[in-house]
Amino acid sequence: MLLNSVVIVLREVLEAALLMSVLLAATRFLQMGKRWVFFALVLGVAGAVLYGYLFGPISELFSGVGQEVGNAGLQLCILLLIVVNVFQISRRMQDTRGSSTRLALLMTLIVVLAIVREGSEVFVYISGFWGVTEFVSAVAVGSVIGTCIGFSVGVLVYYLLLAQPIRHAPVTSVVVLAMIGAGMASQAVRLLSQADWISTSGALWDTSHLLAEQSLLGQLAYALVGYEASPSGLEVAVHLGSFLLVGSAYVAGKLIKVADEDALG
Amino acid sequence: MAAVLCLLLSGGLSLAAVPEFKIEIRNHLFQPDVLKIPAGTKVKLVIYNRDPTPEEFESYELNREKVIPGGRKAIVFIGPLAPGTYPFFGEFNPQTALGTIVVEADSDAAQ
User: Among A54, A215, A242, B96, which residue carries the largest CB count within 10 Å?
Assistant: First the structure.
């Protein structure tokens, strides 16, 4: 039970922690504050508790697939916010003098939604087993350890991102954000097919013998790039499309700024 | 009245279109723990969690995961699948909550 709690909580924390690390690391080259992250954490945890508390009734919506629709909606929102955020990052890089409020707001929203999505399942898990005396200590200790490991990985990624030469930092951030966003989108596709809102074909390939999803590395790959050993064609298409969408938001941000300068000149 | 009729009708239609299978969770065990379903068609799983504790129905092979709060039921659509065996488990109790979905080709199922 203890080890199991560690794994369950770690899985959920990891995704939100990675996203938070990338955004926090980006604040350095964007020359903006980090205070927003505290608001994001508090709001995110509050939202996760609320969503988790209502998980039962939400699940029953849309004739029993409310959970899939809700989670897919959250993940598509995160992708959309990442696209807008990358566009704004791209624009701010040309000129870091102005106000960074808009970026801070976008980053706050992204982190809040990620914590709501992942944290609500942790809440359902912990609150569900809280009443069972024999499990309480294992679940409590396991959750704390899982959270700590998740945050440690986040801190490690944060410092890894800061350790690189600053001229590479923007592109690295955008690539990592694009990977996370693409992972979110393909997860949303899987959830919507689980809910029978969309139909997907069979698996396009199966790489479970190369990298099993249940392995530690597989879990990390899942959190980082939405790794799926046997994805459907639609998942792969949406994954690639989302990656390109985030990438083009970066390019578009640059082009538009250049156009502005041309107009001024 | 018309709405009720519509509901009944659509319910009947979807029942006819998608075969439905029931799984129960009791004492952190799946019942049945081996479920045979036909190949090449979409299938609706209705999973009743009879335990007071939550469970997460999960399968890497089926690409499915769904949290089921204690005392509630969940609907999970799977397939169309190729014949074979697809393990699933309860992530919150992975030592005991284990099961397999066996997908059979039409000729096997008919026998």
Answer: A242
